[in-house]
Amino acid sequence: MKTIKSVDEKMNDIKNELKLNKRVSFFGLFKEYNKPNLVVTFLAILELMKVGKIRIEQEQLFDDIVITAVEKSEEQNGN
Fold first, then answer.
1. What percent of the chain clears pLDDT 70, i.e. is strictly above it?
2. DSSP labels, 9-29
3. Which residues lie across from 57 on neighbouring strands?
4. E strand or H helix at 66, and its extent?
5. Higher pLDDT, 17 or 3
6. 69 to each of 4, 32, 36, 40, 53, how far by Cα in Å?
7. Which of 44, 54, 73, 75 is the most exposed place for a label (fewest CB within 10 A)?
8. pTM over cut 0.70
9. pLDDT per residue over 13-48, tens digit each?
């Protein structure tokens, strides 16, 4: 049985991925696609948005979600 990562672990994974790539897609974050992994990833994204670490964009309804890191200067300015 595969172990599911915690939300904190997934948040770290996302931050590390954004250090390597300026933009990542939501579905690009999955090595294994299953419902528990989808939920944990979505919760991690919501938490990172809440604390101002990432910005997300979605062109149209049901399109992939694109995630970008918030620059340090943007964090400090509250933008």
1. 90
2. HHHHHHHHHHHH-SEEETGGG
3. 66
4. strand 66-69
5. 17
6. 24, 23, 24, 19, 6
7. 73
8. yes
9. 999 999 999 899 988 888 777 899 999 999 999 999
The tokens describing 10, both together, are: 């997934």
Angle subtended at Cα 55 by Cα 4 and Cα 76, rounded to the nearest 5 degrees: 115
With tokens 């599911």, the residue in question is 4
Rounded CA gap, 35 and 47, in Å? 18
Single-letter code of the amino acid located at 14? I
Alpha helices in the chain (DSSP H): 7-20, 35-50, 72-77
- Compute how many other C-beta atoms are within 10 angstroms of the C-beta atom of residue 77: 8
Look at the chain and count its residues. 79
Tokens of 54: 């990432």
